[in-house]
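User: Can you fold this complex?
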Amino acid sequence: MIQGVKGMRDILPPASGVWNFVEAAARRIFTRFNYREIRTPILEETVLFARGVGEETDIVNKEMYTFEDRDGSSLTLRPENTASVIRSYIEHRLDQQPGLQKLYYIGPMFRRERPQKGRYRQFYQIGAEAIGSDSPAIDAEVIELVVAILHEVGIRDFELFVNSVGSKKSRARYNEALQAELKDVAPKMCEDCRRRAQSNPLRVLDCKVPEDQPIIERLPSILDFLDEEDREHFRRVREFLEDRQIRFTVNPRLVRGLDYYARTTFEITHGALGSQNAILGGGRYDRLAETLGSKTPAPGIGFSIGEDRLVMTVEASQALNPQRLDVYIAPMGDTALRHCAALAREIRELDLSVELGTDRKLKRMMELANKQEARFTLIVGDNEIVSQAYTLKDMASGDQQTLSRQALLDRLRRP
Ligand code: HAM
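Assistant: Here's the predicted assembly.
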């Protein structure tokens, strides 16, 4: 038997209904905030992520699916989409368009991590990027947007963490201080930390090794190294969040595992998720466009929701069957089957889902209607066709009504 690839899942019904439900909810909210969709390819040149996400990150170091194409070029399955969106922004001169570019995306990403609950090698993100402004009001609006998406899918008991990793200058001073501090303690840490202590000290804070945590807790806080402008930017982000009555906790250790961040970073976690508890992460990346070759600055901020984790949270927090069958029609005999095709079409035109049974046994059809949790069933035989009167059964209450064709459609039209 040929099986799917490790860490890559099939999403089957009825779960796929929950996926469609969260995607539709996200699209509604994106539209309300004036975001429009961007679709970029799943394959990019490897250098895009090496430069954008950073050589010393776990993603680039250990987790990318990279291969040599037949012409010798190195290609990578996208591990994230922010670098791709900025590549596209530069390539298509989107900076020439009026106003901010507010773009969203929904699609698969690939990271070769150790699979576990909530962590997959092909996973999906629902993300957004607002490009062209460094105003702290945009940071707050982006966070408000992602909170609105969570509310729209019925999730309220989450925790929002925010931090500022400062701009380049502040971070350089912090890196120096970290390096000095790590000189003594790094030899007691894991192999990755020992290497990062030299090459990219900030990444030591991403370490998940339990024995290293007490050491990491005693390292200096980045908030003590922010310069005046960074401090003011962060103060205003917090103020705008308070104005919006969005609750948050400042977490100075939240540096996020990607190198492009500058100033604001944020993450939202949820208790239902277990150890992989981050539903989403994001932050500001004011220099990313220049790192990727843009001649003009294009400061931006965005987030990516882990859709697999969002779906898990929605499934855990409510018993919802977003793709319910509205009407099961059971035709008795061939004449009825032909007659019911037109009836099914009229009901579908009301935007209701209809299953037209083809089994010869009525009992079997009724079993199927039950198993599929149909809201209504309609049994149609020769008598109904002649009299044009139909018996509609409400499956929840057991009530039956005999209705003319028009009355039937009117009844079904009501919510
Ligand atoms: P990230 O923190 O690497 O950020 O990923 C964002 C979210 O994707 C995580 O919080 C998690 O929910 C989900 N995720 C990541 N890896 C996996 C995995 N292996 N399996 C399942 N879910 C996963 C980014 O990707 C940035 N591009 C976010 C961003 C957008 N920053 C600015 N703009």
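The domain at 327-413 is CATH 3.40.50.800 (Rossmann fold). The chain has a mean pLDDT of 94.
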